[in-house]
Every structure is written in C-alpha cells, then in structure tokens.
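Lab meeting, item 3. Inverse folding demo.
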C-alpha cells in the first residue's frame, strides 16, 4: 500500500529541486522533514509541504501508520517553460526561459 502527493508548476527549476529531493529519497518521513528543516535551499519548504501532504493522504485515506512511513519514490519533472525577453543594449533583446517543475512523492509503510 502506498500514498501519493503531487505539486504542479512550482516556480523553481527542476535541477534545483533535484538537489533537495536527492537528499531525502529513501528516508523515513520524520527524518526527512527534520533534514529539510535544516536545509538552506529555496525548494526545501516546498518539498517538506509535499511530504506532509503525502503523509496526510496515507493516514487519512489509506489508514496507514504515520510513524512507519518512508519515502518510497520522489522525483521532479519539467513543468511549463515561460519564455520571456530581456532588453539588451542598442535596442535589442535576448531570450529568457523561466522554468517550472512538477514534483511527485510516494510514501509507503515499512514492513
């Protein structure tokens, strides 16, 4: 039995999110949340909120024990890319790509 939570179109690049989620992958939920509380990255609060949501789904919808949960899978995929222009010298412009990410977390009980 496993529970899932997903957050879409987070305004952080997937590369930066992957730095954070690689740290907590496979950890127990309580350890992961403690680690994220002390992580100095902009994606850490978003990932912590996502893990809490997955735990709430597991305990409320699937009647799992919250103390036995661990992060079975967590990954970040590319979201939409917003294309913008930045003014440059002599009346020209250069392109800018603002990236977003979709983050998915799956928690399961330890046997």
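The presenter then showed the designed sequence:
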């Amino acid at each position: 039995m496993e529970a899932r939570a997903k957050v879409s179109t987070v305004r952080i690049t997937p590369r930066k999110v992957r730095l954070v989620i690689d740290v907590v992958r496979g950890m127990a939920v309580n350890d992961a949340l403690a680690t994220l509380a002390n992580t100095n990255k902009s994606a850490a609060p978003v990932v912590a909120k996502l893990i809490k949501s997955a735990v709430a789904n597991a305990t409320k919808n699937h009647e799992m024990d919250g103390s036995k949960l661990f992060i079975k899978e967590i990954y970040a995929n590319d979201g939409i890319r917003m294309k913008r222009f930045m003014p440059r010298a002599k009346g020209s412009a250069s392109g800018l790509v603002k990236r977003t990410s979709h983050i998915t977390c799956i928690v399961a009980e330890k046997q």
